[in-house]
Structures are given as structure tokens and as C-alpha cells.
């Protein structure tokens, strides 16, 4: 990348679209915030244009643009523009006890217009076929016929134990493309999630329902970039803190859900130059506390609901508390309450230091001399009448709330530094007696930065019987598979390494079956 | 009195079953959905009080055995355990009057409802473990002389076999091997018995108890108040003892050993909310087994030891325990039928490899029975 040296990172949030330009050493050249627009695209266009102008970088020297977006989430939550999905479960003779979309909200079932097909196939945990080694072609053809006749836009296919063996899903997709056209969208559950058929299938169905919306958005985005003269590669941030190509993001848009908090965690780590730390992202209303382990956000063990549907997305493990810059402070006797109510982004009208009448966390921090607000409409003298002991107590409480959430997310008792990011982090002091606090430069744009510096990754999750292989051999196989996947996702071979490994024997099953989850990541191959 | 169990009761049952699951027994989520779907299709299930079963009527416990991780991936068809029941009936030449759970903790609390709804049979409000245990001979039925076999085990493809073994330990050993060959999960009908035998050898009213405990937890998560008072009310009505909060603490370490094919390990905790300065420890092996304060034993298996998340008040399985969780460690004294000498041989601390006598949790914590806090 001799001439193409710069990277652009963009993060689309609920309120702001942040953008940064980084040089080849990942140093921040320029960073801006501009309002998110209702069509999202023009907001992205505006912010990229602004940040580029500010950086004075030639568009020809942009190596790539990476984006964290919320298109997919919004479409699902609003039940808008969703595709009509044919749901295929390759499971027979098993899998009939709970049919697809069981427990879904009726409005979402309607919006997707889903119809389910159960066909023969899938595998046991040890790789033996449940039915035949090969798919039943006639069953597949019947589905394709109905898809064509009934006008389905998209197919979601899941097969039993596909995270360990995806043969049948892949074969089904190949046939679908043969009969319905190369471009017909087919979502493979094995590309999305881990063990647990129902949740993985749910995720695949959601994905199949938003592929059309995502494709439109992606095309619009590429067009917008072309308008700006940018023809470089485009990547999308995934919820696990790595990037995927534009082509992959068009096929698997649900993987972008939840990328925001992940990006801020990664960005914070980069800004503070740490691989293991706690990150507190303080906004206007709430604080998200996450933890970075070996450079990646630790993922939640709990199932995640999207639009009321239980999924198995790889979401970062977060603890959210109702504390932010706009949190309302109320006093009743000796008891001080901060949040969860907040003035939100109306802080510049409502907070006392800005001339409003509501006591907020920001007012407390300004009165305590902790926050310095670089805005002419902010006047600290408006806070002169506040009782100093109240200010001290409220500051103690703010600090305690943040530190308790940080303590809770930790995985070991060893001390870990805490990095503060987000616009609301002005309410926290930069130092504490009990822990190491870091408030890095550019703390406001950690999200966009996190998107810009991300790697590519690959993951495996499967069950292996230890009958003919040792534990070590199985782990080696899983590691090799993860690395192979990461490279296929765009990682550079020589930089790719295992970043996460978990090997647990199955409970209540003798014969020593090992469940191994492995994840590999590496720098992007440009 | 007989009553109907619908979709809502199953929701509560699944939560209560996780309390009684003492950290193990498998996540009841998929089983819950299966039971709810079956009830939606075939109608509510009649729950019979044990006293309502005729003396000679045939009662059959039904369940799944094997790895919950496989169960949630290879979703069953829902009729496997019913198939086992039917083949057992064929062999015995007698129709079942009712089914019942063998285990009221975890996933297996829900499976009999799938069978009952499909077969139009009632469920008896009783079980054979009063909690969750890992093996088939660890049932009160077995302890008090009921033969586990003839037993039938069926898989999703329709493979099935009938087992007749010399004792219940051999039944467990052979059936476990069959379940492995069936792909990790088998669906069983076992311990066929008469109404009288059921009343003599079961822990009574445990389905009702699980539903009541579940309601207590769901209500308290909504209102953000301790579920203990409502739990206590439900437990006092049952054969169990008064619940005890052994301690409130923060998890400082979860040490999972990966040997021997068991989900084995230790949770270390540091006291909070009045227990500051004390170190606690809970050993688990699928289920929570022994709780300690320093070197002092606070509770042992078969008394129930369950972690309740102090934020959501929901019960936690051992798989989800992690550093930083703030938990209440809840102990529930098991019913007398679980504590006899012959019963303790099967599931006392010694069976799990501990050189400890069983001392009832209420004795170990005499004078510290607290409520609410």
C-alpha cells in the first residue's frame, strides 16, 4: 500500500455519525461528529466529506473505508422493507418437535411472510449423517419450485450440527443458485452462529429478511463514496470487533448488529494502547461497560434478543447502567439519586450550567472542577449556589456507579486499567485513588476509530468425540480451521493467529466429547 | 385436586425447575418451548395430585437422557418419549394411567408435558429426584425398591430398544452407552410402577412447587424485590424445609476442570452485604454439591444449593457463572425421603467422592436461618 496510506472509519450511532481519518501508523489525522440522518446515507456522506476536507488527504490515497452501521437493526425493529423468506431446516428424521419461528412475535412473522420446509439431512455431533450422506435432490427441487411460484425473495437454510459440518447447507445453496439464479439470496446458518439450532435458525431467518434492505444500503453507500471520488475497498464492522468485506456484508448483514459498542471498546483500547482493559463508554443517558481480552471484546454467554427474537449472535458482553452526562440528579434528604432519567441530547437547553433548570451529572462535574466544557454557552458561575458537600457526595456517587459496573464485568481479580470514552465521560475524573483510570485523547470518536483499525476473523464451534483423537489433536484441528476461515474472510496469512480458544467437555455425556470454540484474527489483506 | 397446566404455568415451571436444578440439569428453554407448542396444539395438560391415582394404575416416568448441548442442536421430534412409553405399554400389556417426571430440576421437568399433551394423558404431581442428578439410578424410586427396567429408549430416527437389567446401576450404565450411539441423546420411559408404589417412593407435589418457585422469581424480577418470602411460602407447603440464604457474595473465580468428561469445578466467592471479609466456595459437578465458608461446610448434597443472581433474581446455571457476578447462595433442605440412610448411599457427599458426612443444612446453619436478607 505504497500510495494508499489512509483509512477512514465511520460509525453510525443513534444521534451522531462519527468519522475519522487515520494515517498508515493508525494515528488520527482528523475526527468529526455530524448528526445521523433519517436516510442514514446522507449522514454518512456528509461526515466522510467533512472529515476528508478537514484532513486534507487526497481521496486517491485512501486504502479503505470501514463502516459500523445500524441498517439491519432498524429494518428488523421497524418491521419495514423485510424480504419474504422461505425457511428450510435440514433435519429429518429429527427436528420436528419445535417448528421454525416458534415463540416469535406475530407481527414479525407477518412481516416476513415466512413458510417453513423440513427436509432430510444434517449430521450427528460426531459427523455421521442423520439421514443420507447426500441431500435428497427431489425435496430441494420441490422447495425451489414453490419459492419461484410463491414469489419468495430470500431463503434461510439451517441444518443440524452445521457449525461442525456445513456440507448439506452448502450443497443446498449450490442447488438453489443453480435453479433460482446466481444472485438469489441464500443465508447459511453455519455462517452466522454457533451450536443451538433454534437460535441459529432465528438468526439466519432475520438475516434472510434484511438482505434486500442491506444490499440497497450498501449500493447507495458505494455510490456515495464514488461521488466523493473514493474507489477503495469498503469493509463493514461486525459485532465481534472484526471486519467483513462489502460482498460478505451484503450476504450477512445481521452480523453488523451490535457493532457499535464493540467498536468503541476496540477504539478505546487502541487510543490507550492496551490489549487487556475495561472500557466505559459514557454517553448522554447510559454507560456501557465492556471488557477487552487479548485485543477483543469478551462476548456474552447469554442469548441476545433482536426485535424480540432469541438469537445466538456474537455480541459483546456489556453491562449498561443508567448514568450519562445528561443524567438527572435528585436530592431527598441525605440520599442523592443520579439517573436513570436523563435530559439526553437536550443537555444544552436543560442543564443548569447551560442556562437550564435541571441539575444533571454534567453540572455536578463542572461544579466539582472535573469537567471543562469548551462551549461559550456553558457558564460554571451558574452553579455557585450548589452546596459543595452535595457536589462532593454526588461526584463520589458517579465514580462509585462507574467503578462498580467495571468491577462487575471483570473476569479475574487482577487489577485492570479502565479506559473512559464517549462524549459523557467528562463527568468522570481522570484519576481515582483505587484504580488506574485513563481518559485518552480523541475519546469522543472511539467508535469510528474502532471500525477503522479492525482485523478480519474466522470462528469455529463444534463437538468432537475423543475416541480416536487426543484432546490436543482436536484443539489443533479446530485452530487450523479457524485460521483457514479468517484467511477466507480477508486476513493476511502471516498475521493471522488464534485469539480465543475454549475447550469444554460435554456434561451428562460419557465418551469424552469435547466442544471446542476457536477464533482466529489477522490484519486485512489489502 | 386435579388442575390444568397451560402455556403460562410452563413459563413459570421452567424458571422454578432451574432453581431446583441446583446449577445443572440442562437449560429448560427448548423443553419449555416444546411443551408450550404441544399444549397449544393439543390443549392443556391435567396435573393430578398423587392421591388421585388409583392403587393399581400404571404410572410411568418419562425423560430425556444425555447431553443438553446435543438436545438443543438436534431438536427432537417431540414424540420420541411417547414412543418409548407406548412400546413399554406393549411389553407390559397394560396402558399407562398417567406419566410423571423422573426429575423436577432442569430440562426434564418439561419433557413429561410434551408427552402428556400429545398422548392426552395426565401428569402426576411428583418426581423421583426432587432436584437434578446426573444418573438414572439416583432416583427415590430406585432407593425404595422399584425396578428401573423394563425401560425403553428411543431416538429421533425411530431406533429403540427395550432394556431389562439385573439392577438399576446396570440400567444406567447400559442406557448411557445406548444414548451415546443414538447421537448423544435418548428419550426414555422407565420405572413403570403402580399408583401405590408411586405414592410410597416419590417426592410429592414437586411440579406445583416448581411452578410456585418460578412465579416467585418472575414476580420478584419484575418488582425488584427478593423472591425469598414467596419462595419460603411455596416450600413450607411442600415437603422441603425452609430456605436459607447461606451468604451473599461476589464471584472471584470460577475454576473449571476439564478432566473425566464431567463439567466439574469450584466457584470461589467473597462476601458482600453483611458477609464482608469472608471467603466462600462452592464445588460443582454438573450440579452444585458442597458450599463452604472458609473451611467450614455450610451445605452438602442432596440439600439443594442454588445461585440466584442478585440483579435479576433469576437462578444461574454453573455454565453461566463468571467472575464479578453478585449472587445469593440459596440452600433448600431436601425432603426427609431424600435423607434416609439408604438414600444418602446413592447421593450423599460420599457418592461424589467427598469424605464428609451428610448433616442437614438447617443443622449446619442453626441459629442463622434468616429471611429476606
TrEMBL record, chain B:
Residues 9-164 form the S-Me-THD N-terminal domain. SUPFAM superfamilies: CV3147-like. It holds the Pfam family S-Me-THD_N. InterPro entries: S-Me-THD-like_C, S-Me-THD_C_sf, S-Me-THD_N, S-Me-THD_N_sf. Residues 167-361 form the S-Me-THD-like C-terminal domain. This is DUF917 domain-containing protein.
Amino acid at each position: 500500500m505504497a500510495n494508499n496510506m489512509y483509512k477512514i472509519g465511520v460509525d453510525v450511532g443513534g444521534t451522531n455519525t462519527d468519522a475519522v481519518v487515520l494515517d498508515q501508523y493508525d494515528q488520527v489525522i482528523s475526527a468529526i461528529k455530524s448528526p445521523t440522518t433519517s436516510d442514514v446515507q446522507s449522514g454518512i456522506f456528509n461526515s466522510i466529506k467533512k472529515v476528508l476536507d478537514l484532513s486534507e488527504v487526497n481521496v486517491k490515497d485512501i486504502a479503505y473505508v470501514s463502516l459500523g452501521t445500524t441498517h439491519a437493526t432498524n429494518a428488523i425493529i421497524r418491521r419495514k422493507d423485510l424480504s419474504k423468506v422461505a425457511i428450510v431446516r435440514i433435519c429429518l428424521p429429527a427436528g420436528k418437535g419445535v417448528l421454525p419461528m416458534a415463540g416469535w412475535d406475530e407481527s414479525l412473522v407477518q412481516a416476513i411472510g415466512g413458510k417453513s420446509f423440513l427436509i432430510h439431512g444434517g449430521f450427528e455431533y460426531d459427523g455421521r449423517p442423520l439421514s443420507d450422506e447426500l441431500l435428497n435432490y427431489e425435496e430441494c427441487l420441490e422447495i425451489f419450485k414453490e419459492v419461484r411460484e410463491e414469489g419468495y425473495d430470500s431463503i434461510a437454510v439451517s441444518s443440524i450440527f452445521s457449525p461442525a459440518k456445513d456440507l448439506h447447507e452448502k450443497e443446498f445453496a449450490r442447488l438453489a443458485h443453480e435453479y433460482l439464479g446466481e444472485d438469489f439470496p441464500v443465508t447459511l446458518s453455519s455462517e452466522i452462529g454457533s451450536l443451538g439450532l433454534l437460535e441459529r435458525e432465528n438468526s439466519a431467518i432475520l438475516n434472510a429478511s434484511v438482505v434486500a434492505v442491506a444490499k440497497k444500503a450498501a449500493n447507495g453507500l458505494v455510490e456515495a463514496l464514488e461521488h466523493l471520488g473514493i474507489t477503495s475497498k469498503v469493509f463493514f464492522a461486525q459485532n465481534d470487533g472484526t471486519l467483513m468485506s462489502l460482498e460478505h456484508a451484503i450476504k450477512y448483514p445481521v452480523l453488523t448488529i451490535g457493532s457499535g459498542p464493540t467498536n468503541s471498546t476496540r477504539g478505546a483500547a487502541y487510543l490507550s494502547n492496551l490489549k487487556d482493559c475495561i472500557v466505559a463508554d459514557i454517553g448522554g443517558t447510559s454507560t456501557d461497560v465492556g471488557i477487552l481480552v487479548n485485543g477483543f471484546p469478551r462476548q456474552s454467554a447469554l442469548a441476545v434478543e433482536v426485535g424480540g427474537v432469541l438469537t445466538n449472535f456474537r455480541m459483546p458482553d456489556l453491562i449498561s447502567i443508567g448514568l450519562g452526562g445528561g443524567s438527572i440528579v435528585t436530592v431527598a434528604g441525605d440520599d442523592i439519586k443520579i439517573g436513570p432519567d436523563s435530559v439526553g441530547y437536550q443537555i444544552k437547553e436543560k442543564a443548569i450550567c447551560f442556562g437550564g433548570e435541571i441539575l444533571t451529572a454534567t453540572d455536578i462535574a463542572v461544579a466539582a472542577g472535573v469537567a471543562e466544557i469548551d462551549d461559550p454557552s456553558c457558564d460554571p458561575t451558574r452553579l455557585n449556589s450548589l452546596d459543595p458537600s452535595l457536589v462532593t457526595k454526588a461526584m463520589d456517587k458517579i465514580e462509585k456507579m462507574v467503578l462498580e459496573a467495571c468491577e462487575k464485568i471483570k473476569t479475574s481479580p487482577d487489577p485492570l486499567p479502565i479506559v473512559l470514552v464517549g462524549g459523557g465521560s467528562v463527568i468522570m475524573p481522570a484519576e481515582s485513588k483505587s484504580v488506574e483510570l485513563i481518559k485518552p485523547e480523541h475519546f469522543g470518536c472511539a467508535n469510528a476509530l474502532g471500525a477503522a483499525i479492525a482485523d478480519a476473523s474466522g470462528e469455529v464451534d463444534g463437538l468432537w468425540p475423543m475416541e480416536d483423537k487426543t484432546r490436543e489433536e482436536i484443539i489443533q484441528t479446530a485452530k487450523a480451521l479457524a485460521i483457514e476461515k479468517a484467511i477466507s474472510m480477508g486476513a493476511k496469512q502471516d498475521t493471522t493467529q488464534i485469539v480465543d480458544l475454549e475447550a469444554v467437555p460435554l456434561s451428562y455425556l460419557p465418551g469424552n466429547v469435547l466442544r471446542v470454540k476457536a477464533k482466529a484474527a489477522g490484519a486485512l489483506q489489502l | 385436586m386435579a388442575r390444568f397446566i397451560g402455556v403460562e404455568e410452563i413459563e413459570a415451571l421452567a424458571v422454578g425447575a432451574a432453581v431446583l436444578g441446583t446449577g445443572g440439569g440442562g437449560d429448560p428453554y427448548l423443553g419449555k418451548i416444546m411443551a408450550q407448542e404441544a399444549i397449544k396444539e393439543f390443549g392443556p395438560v391435567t396435573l393430578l395430585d398423587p392421591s388421585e391415582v388409583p392403587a393399581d394404575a400404571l404410572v410411568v416416568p418419562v425423560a430425556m437422557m444425555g447431553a443438553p448441548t446435543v438436545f438443543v442442536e438436534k431438536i427432537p421430534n417431540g414424540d420420541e418419549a411417547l414412543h418409548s412409553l407406548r412400546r413399554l405399554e406393549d411389553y407390559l400389556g397394560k396402558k399407562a394411567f398417567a406419566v410423571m417426571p423422573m426429575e423436577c430440576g432442569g430440562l426434564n421437568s418439561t419433557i413429561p408435558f410434551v408427552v402428556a399433551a400429545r398422548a392426552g394423558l395426565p401428569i402426576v404431581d411428583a418426581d423421583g429426584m426432587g432436584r437434578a442428578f446426573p444418573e438414572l439410578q439416583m432416583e427415590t424410586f430406585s432407593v425404595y425398591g422399584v425396578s428401573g427396567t423394563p425401560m425403553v429408549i428411543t431416538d429421533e430416527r425411530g431406533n429403540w430398544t427395550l432394556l431389562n437389567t439385573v439392577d438399576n446401576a446396570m440400567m444406567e450404565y447400559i442406557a448411557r452407552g445406548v444414548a451415546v450411539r443414538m447421537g448423544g441423546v435418548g428419550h426414555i420411559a422407565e420405572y413403570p410402577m403402580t399408583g401405590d408404589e408411586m405414592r410410597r417412593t416419590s417426592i410429592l407435589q414437586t411440579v406445583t412447587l416448581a411452578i410456585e418457585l418460578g412465579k416467585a422469581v418472575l414476580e420478584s424480577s419484575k418488582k425488584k424485590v427478593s423472591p425469598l418470602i414467596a419462595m419460603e411460602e411455596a416450600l413450607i407447603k411442600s415437603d422441603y424445609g425452609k430456605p436459607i440464604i447461606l451468604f451473599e457474595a461476589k464471584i472471584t473465580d470460577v475454576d473449571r476442570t476439564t478432566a473425566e468428561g464431567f463439567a466439574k469445578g469450584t466457584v470461589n466467592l467473597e462476601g458482600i452485604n453483611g458477609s464482608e471479609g469472608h471467603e466462600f466456595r462452592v464445588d460443582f459437578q454438573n450440579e452444585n454439591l458442597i458450599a463452604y465458608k472458609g473451611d467450614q461446610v455450610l451445605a452438602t448434597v442432596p440439600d439443594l444449593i442454588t445461585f440466584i443472581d442478585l440483579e435479576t433474581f433469576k437462578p444461574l446455571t454453573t455454565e453461566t457463572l463468571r467472575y464479578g457476578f453478585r449472587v445469593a447462595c440459596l440452600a433448600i433442605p431436601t425432603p426427609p425421603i431424600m435423607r434416609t440412610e439408604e438414600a444418602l448411599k446413592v447421593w450423599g457427599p460420599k457418592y461424589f467422592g467427598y469424605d464428609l458426612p451428610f448433616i442437614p443444612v438447617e443443622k449446619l446453619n442453626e441459629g442463622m436461618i434468616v429471611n429476606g436478607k
